[in-house]
Amino acid sequence: MESLGINQADLAKMMTVSRESVSNWLNQEKFPRASKLLIMSKILKLGFGELVIQEQAPAPIIAFRTNKKKRVSTEKELNANDTGHMLRMLLPYLDTTVFSAPFTKAPSLEYDYIQKVAKEVRRRVNLSSGVMEISHIMELYDEFHIVLIPVLWGEKGDNGLYIKLPEDEITFIYANLEKYIADFKFWMLHELAHAMTIELDGEDSELFADYLAAALLFPGTSAKEVYHDLEKIRIVGAKVNKIKEIAMDYMISPFTVLNEVNKYAKSVSLPTIVVAIGGAVTNFNKSVGLLSNHLFDGVSPSPEKYMEVCRKTFKSKFFVALARYLQETGADAGVVHRLMNIPIADAKGVHNILGNQNDFT
Description:
It is a single chain. The protein folds into 4 domains: 1-53, lambda repressor-like DNA-binding domains (434 Repressor (Amino-terminal Domain), Orthogonal Bundle); 93-217, Arc Repressor Mutant, subunit A; 220-285, no CATH class; 303-360, no CATH class. The chain has 18 helices and 4 strands. It has helices at 8-15, 19-26, 34-44, 48-51, 74-87, 111-124, 134-143, 181-196, 202-217, 220-231, 236-250, 254-267, 278-288, 291-295, 303-312, 317-329, 333-340, 344-356, and strands at 61-65, 146-151, 160-165, 170-176. It has a 4-stranded mixed beta sheet with strand order 1-3-4-2, sandwiched between helices.
């Protein structure tokens, strides 16, 4: 600041905040919001790493799941870091276990290894070749120390956000409910796969997560059976309809069905099934619809309805911890707004329920 000829009073004026706020930030008594950090970084010409004193605890591991893989802005990065910082406040209020989450050993991208892991994971929720339901995924999230935060970020909004606090061996997954059901289930299991392995990174980590998510949704035994059924069908349109039928039975994307069938074929040196199903996938998603439409009967939910679904369908520990925090500290709706990245009006509705009802604590 001195090198730029700026004092605390100048900085407060340039940021349109009180001098007291600037003093609290610089003395580490309070943490500024991400939007304020962004303004401060531009004024002081400092990056986030230079501006924020890093805590002794490892920094949160953050992965963005943007809609259509849009570029992540600096403001979004700052918001995510702010969220990770705030999530630590909830840790004392979470019901956690003293046992460590299980991890995969020597993870590999080989087909047989992926199928072995999928089989063992499905066995944990008493599934062999049955349909992987959302309730099963919630059981797995609990076992692998993942806290789900269901959010309504819009059909065109981000798919979600992954924040891992490595020192506490706990992962927070923000999942946008306003997405197609098949895509939602796949992405949820993709994040589970990330939580299961700590030995892979980069492209291999993403591939492992994609492969395991698909195998969990449509295991090799089912893929083998469907492959031989498809081989008997000579008419292309009939093959596509068969793939759509299987996809509907498992409530997964036709892409997942075809990809897993062909992975099986390659693993045993059989010819792959070659059909174009892009149009079938589009029609499938339109006919099945968004998860939020099924959860909320096609209407925008009230805060009460939203919280009821979060509690009964997803059994999220996040809201229990947040309710305990709000009731003990008396924090206002701004905390909900920052933690969930939702409009302040919606945050007030959630705050009113969590801050005043004992059902969540």
